[in-house]
């Protein structure tokens, strides 16, 4: 499958460990066959009372082969698993490198539990590709060919019987297993995704489900998903056990065939009876090396299915786009320009932005206002290259955004999104997300600027900031942004949950720090916008009007009406 090409490429990069694993596996297989063959010959030879030195030599060879088999098997496991872990590391790195630029779009299409199942479960499933799919046939062919050549020196007919057994173990048994697995192909993984999704949503929504009395219903759905997963896993395990049973049947059938055929050849005088036990033991041992072939189809389908799902997840990343060559400097204020930019979310009938043209001069302070869903946040996401515009051009410092390296844009930006994420740990941990390192004094000073004087750096922060109020979350996010050295500010509703006095104090600190920088502010509240160089009013993805606060109030247009509505609402609240 084309989806497995990345696995093949990663295996080539680990060719040294893979070659060592193959050599170790071949030596271990041959040593095992030789060990049991020699043991069989030793048992037969003792019947004829051989000289003592013969027994000493044979027993010494048995011990040497046993040690050789153990050592080579250890080396095989060591190099095979090291190659596998290195492969997984490369696959994770490659997958995440493709996934990160697509995260905003993917989160809109995939449920978080399903995405988690793919990131964790599907990548982990690919570890079987080398150990269970690519590696066993190589060892089986090498060991079988060597054994057949060895056996043909004693009896060509028994060697032919070995070839028949090899074909049955390598093709017939896996073929029968594959026919049975077609019915359950992918069902275990899909059901595991359903189960993971249900668990994730139950954990995230536990509080709301509890309040609205729907917890029991969700628990029943989770129990149903768990039962369905168990049934699919049981069905898959049954097919694997059938394959292993068929392989054991073939192994013992060939061993009995060697015994019967050898007895017949001894009666005809064309085969020495002292070698019969040796060849019977050889047949039992060599087919043990072929045991992984019985389960190969299952692991092959599992790997292919996992690789296909991962490829679907990052399908957009496979589009050949021009490689960014320019780097955005963070040492100077940044100018931004949108020329006829439009954007439409997938499966949405209405564009989020329609032919938007804006220019943000270096060092300017711009506020973008408008009702929810007017496209304000989309503009920031496009400027940060979190999404790609449907049409139009975006230029930063007169350079096309397509030519700019994503990381350099993020490095030059101080960003506060509408919903910031907080990690479990302390306030200090959540402030120190960048590469810069600061002293506790510097961090405490930033907290003071963000009006968080009641918080300590060692205060605990729960996952997703569950123990923080919305206002505290916003101020920590602002403090995190103020720690950065970028000259480009993107602020999306950074103070919507703050009271008026705290909001003014925080804004004063922000504007003081960003006085020479380019700043874009998205907000619903229109208070305090007098200090902005320009105000852009948007609605339904279009620019309705733009200008300074005084110009827009004098025009008495869209912005003026929004301001009057806000003043009226504030007045009604004061009366209440």
TrEMBL record:
Keywords noted in UniProt: ATP-binding, Membrane, Nucleotide-binding, Transmembrane, Transmembrane helix
Lineage summary: Bacteria, Bacillati, Bacillota, Bacilli, Bacillales
TM region(s), chain numbering: 21-42, 48-68, 129-150, 156-181, 249-267
Gene coding for it: cydC
A GO biological-process term: glutathione transmembrane transport
Keyword Ubl conjugation: no
Membrane topology: Multi-pass membrane protein
Protein name in the entry: Thiol reductant ABC exporter subunit CydC
Domain ABC transporter: from-to ranges: 336-565
Provenance organism: Paenibacillus roseus
């Amino acid at each position: 499958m084309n989806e497995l090409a990345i696995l093949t490429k990663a295996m080539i990069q680990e060719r040294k460990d893979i070659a060592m694993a193959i050599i170790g596996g071949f030596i271990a297989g041959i040593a095992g066959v030789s060990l049991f063959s020699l043991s069989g010959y030793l048992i037969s030879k003792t019947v004829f009372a051989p000289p003592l030195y013969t027994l000493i030599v044979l027993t010494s060879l048995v011990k040497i082969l046993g040690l050789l088999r153990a050592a080579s098997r250890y080396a095989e496991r060591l190099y095979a698993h090291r190659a596998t872990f290195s492969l997984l590391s490369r696959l994770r790195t490659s997958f995440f490198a493709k996934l990160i630029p697509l995260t905003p779009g993917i989160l809109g299409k995939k449920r978080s539990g399903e995405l988690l199942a793919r990131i964790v479960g599907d990548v982990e499933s690919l570890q079987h590709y080398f150990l269970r799919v690519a590696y066993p046939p190589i060892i089986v062919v090498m060991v079988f060919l060597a054994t057949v050549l060895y056996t043909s020196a004693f009896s060509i007919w028994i060697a032919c019987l070995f070839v028949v057994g090899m074909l049955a173990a390598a093709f017939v048994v896996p073929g029968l297993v594959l026919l049975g697995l077609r019915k359950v192909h992918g069902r275990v993984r899909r059901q595991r995704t359903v189960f993971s999704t249900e668990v994730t949503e139950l954990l995230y929504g536990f509080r709301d489900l509890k309040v609205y009395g729907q917890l029991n219903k969700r628990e029943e759905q989770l129990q149903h998903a768990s039962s369905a997963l168990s049934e699919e896993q049981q069905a898959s395990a049954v097919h694997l056990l059938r394959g292993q049973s068929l392989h054991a049947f073939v192994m013992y059938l060939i061993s009995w065939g060697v015994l019967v055929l050898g007895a017949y050849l001894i009666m005809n005088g064309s085969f020495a009876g002292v070698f019969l036990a040796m060849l019977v033991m050889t047949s039992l041992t060599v087919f043990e090396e072929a045991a992984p072939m019985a389960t190969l189809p299952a692991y092959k389908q599992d790997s292919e299915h996992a690789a296909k799902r991962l490829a679907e997840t990052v399908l957009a990343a496979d589009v050949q786009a021009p490689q960014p060559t320019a780097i955005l400097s963070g040492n100077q204020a940044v100018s931004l320009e949108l020329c006829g930019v439009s954007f439409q979310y997938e499966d949405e009938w209405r564009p989020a932005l329609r032919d938007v043209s804006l220019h943000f001069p270096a060092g300017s302070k711009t506020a973008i206002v408008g009702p929810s869903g007017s496209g304000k946040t989309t503009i920031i996401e496009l400027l940060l290259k979190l999404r790609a515009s449907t049409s139009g051009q975006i230029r930063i410092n007169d350079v096309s955004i397509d030519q700019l390296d994503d990381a350099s844009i993020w490095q030059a930006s101080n960003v506060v999104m509408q919903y910031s994420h907080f990690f479990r740990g302390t306030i200090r941990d959540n402030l120190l997300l960048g590469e810069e390192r600061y002293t506790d004094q510097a961090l405490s000073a930033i907290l003071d600027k963000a009006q968080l004087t009641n918080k300590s750096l060692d205060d605990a922060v729960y996952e997703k900031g569950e123990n923080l109020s919305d206002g505290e979350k916003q101020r920590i996010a602002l403090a995190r942004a103020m720690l950065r050295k970028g000259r480009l500010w993107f602020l999306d509703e950074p103070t919507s949950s703050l009271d008026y006095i705290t909001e003014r104090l925080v804004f004063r600190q922000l504007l003081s720090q960003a006085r020479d920088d380019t700043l874009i502010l998205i907000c619903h509240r229109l208070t305090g916008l007098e200090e902005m160089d320009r105000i852009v009013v948007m609605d339904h993805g279009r620019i309705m009007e733009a200008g300074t606060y005084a110009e827009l109030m004098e025009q008495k247009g869209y912005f003026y009406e929004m301001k009057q509505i806000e003043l009226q609402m504030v007045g009604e609240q004061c009366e209440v």
